[in-house]
């Protein structure tokens, strides 16, 4: 069996998430998790829709949204520049229910403050939203900086994870 690109949709409180992966003899490698309205979403061909290889991803996403999972354990695609991969790897240390700042993330990577914009670009290029938790990176002043899935979804995710208190109505 050769490797092929497959897609599925996962319903969530954030809208329908588009999952893309490569399926082959050793199983599925998740290559993208996109949110509605996100720029750069992979093109989907009808013949590439196949829910079967995504069974474990569906289980883990359902558990996350139900509050029973705090991290994902899925084979992930690591395609990216060495700099992007280093930034994405640093996200592994930003745990559920916590946040970090762009400056703190840069410091963990021994980068000068002049590289903060590059860190932000690498986070913006993260093709695996939610799974690689770039939503946990906020401004030094506590502000919600850009998020490819939308700032409203970033706020929802941080509230869901307990990093932010729910807004009082």
Automatic annotation (TrEMBL):
Recorded catalytic activity of this chain's protein: a 6-O-methyl-2'-deoxyguanosine in DNA + L-cysteinyl-[protein] = S-methyl-L-cysteinyl-[protein] + a 2'-deoxyguanosine in DNA; a 4-O-methyl-thymidine in DNA + L-cysteinyl-[protein] = a thymidine in DNA + S-methyl-L-cysteinyl-[protein]
Protein name in the entry: methylated-DNA--[protein]-cysteine S-methyltransferase
One of the GO BP terms on file: DNA repair
Lineage of the organism: Bacteria, Bacillati, Actinomycetota, Actinomycetes, Kitasatosporales
GO-annotated molecular function: methylated-DNA-[protein]-cysteine S-methyltransferase activity
Organism superkingdom: Bacteria
Pfam families with a match to the protein in the record: DNA_binding_1 (PF01035), Methyltransf_1N (PF02870)
Domain Methylguanine DNA methyltransferase ribonuclease-like: 7-78
Organism listed in the record: Streptomyces yokosukanensis
Family to which this protein belongs: Belongs to the MGMT family.
E.C. code: 2.1.1.63
Domain spans labelled Methylated-DNA-[protein]-cysteine S-methyltransferase DNA binding: 82-163
CDD domains found in the cross-reference section: ATase
Keywords associated with the record: DNA damage, DNA repair, Methyltransferase, Transferase
InterPro entries for the chain: MethylDNA_cys_MeTrfase_DNA-bd, MethylDNA_cys_MeTrfase_DNAb, MethylG_MeTrfase_N, MGMT_N_sf, WH-like_DNA-bd_sf
């Amino acid at each position: 069996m050769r490797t092929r690109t497959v897609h599925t949709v996962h319903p969530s409180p954030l809208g329908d998430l588009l999952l893309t992966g490569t399926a082959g003899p050793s199983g599925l490698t998740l290559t993208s998790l996109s949110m509605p309205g996100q720029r750069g979403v992979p093109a989907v061909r009808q013949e590439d829709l196949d829910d079967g290889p995504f069974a474990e991803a569906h289980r883990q996403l359902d558990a996350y949204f139900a509050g029973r999972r705090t991290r994902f354990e899925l084979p992930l695609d690591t395609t990216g520049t060495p700099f992007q991969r280093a930034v994405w790897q640093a996200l592994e240390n930003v745990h559920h229910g916590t946040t970090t700042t762009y400056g703190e993330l840069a410091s963990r990577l021994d980068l000068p403050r002049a590289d903060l914009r590059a860190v932000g670009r690498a986070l913006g290029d993260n093709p695996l939203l939610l799974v690689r938790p770039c939503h946990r990176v906020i401004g030094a002043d506590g502000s919600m900086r850009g998020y490819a899935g939308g700032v409203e979804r970033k706020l929802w995710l941080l509230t869901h994870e307990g990093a932010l208190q729910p807004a009082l109505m």
